[in-house]
Amino acid sequence: MTMSTTQHSTTDNDLVRLEHVSKRFGPVEPLKDINLRVGHGEVLGLLGNNGAGKSTLMKILCGFHPASDGTMYFEGKPVNLRSVTHARQLGIDCVYQDLALVNELNVYHNMFLQREPVHGGPLGILNNKRMKADAERHLADMGVNIPSVDVEIAKLSGGQRQAIAVARSVYSNARLLLLDEPTAAMGAKEGAMILNVIKRLRERGDVSVIIIAHNYAQIFDVCDRINLLREGEIVFDRATSDTSVQELTDIVVNEYRAATEAEA
Ligand SMILES: Nc1ncnc2c1ncn2[C@@H]1O[C@H](COP(=O)(O)OP(=O)(O)OP(=O)(O)O)[C@@H](O)[C@H]1O
Ligand SMILES: [Mg+2]
């Protein structure tokens, strides 16, 4: 009962932390007493079966849903996210599957679309030449391979678009990137480009990432830590250096067995 008063000091080492967060939609409670943390520059893999609550958790972190209960800390301070825009202003950015890139515009215009000014001065004073050069440099830094920044978004592959969306978030000074199944429905080569971008981010160390994926073997190597959600609760929290793809497979297989035996 007295525990909650002692937990404030430990939040300072984390970029983001949820304490006792729950979410209810009427009688449904997809998240129950969630305690989750992500360190500065850390990449957290969030795993769990269909319906485990992964996307709901992301939507709380990005300001889309308010939590029903509990507290969120960002950079050690309690925050009450009012909207996705509010979260983005704080540096929390979610890259959705549908991305919000404008198909009819070229890559470099998309890089600067609807973004807050970055460092010096309003974007209005940036001319095309400068935007183009900045976009080229930044995408190259992030390891995003595209034919040209002049190309229309509509002409790129799903993986290339996703990589550009991630790069754009980083360019706008995001501190926490939330990726909900970024490699779903992608070929191996496209998925590899996303994973490469995340690897780059991890090397830079200035952006934290939460990545949801069904294919945990695919993301295992880019993660520092793994959390496993089961029916709205975090049941496993381990550094990747202290676990393995095999151990995760064993857990998932056991879960599946338990679920089918319960049904029988
Ligand atoms: N807006 C909502 N209203 C009511 N119930 C919801 C809502 N959003 C999600 N849920 C319920 O919450 C539970 C968790 O859903 P969620 O989308 O978070 O799962 P998930 O782990 O992302 O699954 P998947 O792997 O299939 O994407 C589900 O039972 C779902 O039906
Ligand atoms: Mg989901």
Structural summary, described in words:
With 264 residues, the protein is an alpha/beta fold. It has a domain at 1-81 and 210-264: Rossmann fold. Helices cover 33% and strands 25% of the residues. It has eight helices and ten strands. The strands form two sheets. It has a six-stranded mixed beta sheet, sandwiched between helices. A four-stranded antiparallel beta sheet has the order 2-1-4-5, with helices on one face. Strand 4 (69-74) and strand 5 (77-79) form a beta hairpin. Helix 5 runs parallel beside helix 6. The longest helix is centred in the C-terminal third of the chain and has 19 residues, at 245-263. It is globular, with a radius of gyration of 19 Å. It starts with 13 loop residues before the first strand and ends with a helix. Magnesium ion binds next to helix 1.
Which keywords apply here?
Rossmann fold, binds adenosine-5'-triphosphate, 264 residues, alpha/beta, single chain, binds magnesium ion
Q: Give me the number of helical elements.
A: 8
Major sheet details: 6 strands, mixed
Helix and strand string, N-terminal first? EEEHEEHEHHHEHEHEEH
Could you tell me the CATH topology label of the domain at 1-81 and 210-264: Rossmann fold
- The overall pLDDT, averaged over residues, is 85
Bound molecules: adenosine-5'-triphosphate, magnesium ion
CATH class of the domain at 1-81 and 210-264: Alpha Beta
Question: Tally of extended strands?
Answer: 10
Low-confidence stretches: 1-11
Helix content: 25-40%
